[in-house]
Design brief:
Layout lengths: L12 H16 L12 H13 L1 H19 L7 E7 L9 E10 L2 H69 L5 H35 L21 H11 L1 H22 L4 E11 L2 E11 L8 H49 L3 H10 L5 H32 L5
Antiparallel strand pairs: 1-2, 2-3, 3-4
Helix pairs in contact: 1-4, 1-7, 2-4, 3-4, 4-5, 4-7, 4-10, 7-8, 8-10, 9-10
Length: 412
Amino acid sequence: MPGFRYSVASIDSTKANTMQKHFVFAICGCLFLSGVFAQTPEIDGILQQIEQNNRELQAISSYLEGRKLELKSGNNLPDPQFGFFYLPNGDNSTGDYTEFQVSQTIEFPTVYGARGTLIEEQETQLELEYLSRRQEILLRAKGHGLELIYLNKRIATEQERLEQARTVMDQVEELYRREQNGILELNKAKVAWLQDQFKVQQLENERRNVRLLLQNLNGGTPLKIEGSEFSGTLDIADLDVLWQDRLVHDADLVLIRQEEVIAAQALAVSRNKSLPNLTAGYNQQGVPGAIYSGLYAGISLPLWSNRNKVKSARSHLEFQEVNSTRKTQEARTRFEKQVNEYQMMLSRYREYQTTLSGMDSESLLMEAYQLGEISFMDYYRELQFYRDAYDSMIKMEYELFRQQAELLKHKL
């Protein structure tokens, strides 16, 4: 992918560490920024509550603290060694032999520095995994919030239609009493009214279920969204601009590169472990009347223990470099496909808007029916045609905002 791929093997550990920390800081800096991803204050509010109250995020946060401590413990010094000899037996004339020794063995100092940097990179990876899961949970919550706005809009629309259906039914019933139409017309009007009632009840049940899903994400605390209109623009930035922004702020994409950085640092650790281990200590030995003491020093050459480990680490780095490029290219392809589908739906939605905005079909149909120009069935059939078109348009609007949320997940 142009402008993105770099070789981790060519950067030293300090530079790699700084680069990845910039990525993490950039992501953290977006936690409370909405940018062009502005939505209703209600949704912004519930996302903040869910981030604080979500049980899974709380559990992951506690787990990460434990994992970080576990990683740090992997760079501790070995325990010191104490030894004492008392040799009273044997054929000797000088008295009982005693010996005391204390020693400390360490790996070559540069190993601890390289491993410490590796641990920092692994901690960064853990933080990115948390951010990745956080973005997924908040995206799901945002989807539920958008669905509630859509359902609120549908319910408000259906309630208006229910009132209209009741008005029409009363008119048909009055005409029936005047013997200006038959019982079939009256029955059809009643059935239409009952159908509108059922739609409202069905939508209200769907809304209750979505609220339960939000409540679960919020740690069991109920949440409500009363708004019925989406806010914010449906326009999005250019594909390349969005992708570059996503490369920096999408935790999943940064994680791909972080695996490459960790592999590079693991190679540095393996190389440093080819250096000898060092041992230093104090030794005292002797018999009564004659004691010898002094310093003890030694080295342990890793002739066999580190065999093939550097080659293995280098092969793993080469794999991660190729795999990172592959995963990023696949992510770019999926993202471009999503953007293309979004732009196509947006174009279609705006055509619907343009076509339906200038129509006053329901009023014209009602006027024609009241003047006796069309029958009730003709009125109802034509009314449903225009209502279905309007319902398709607002469903498309909801789907667009949901797709936009997915495209801009990295801004959550």
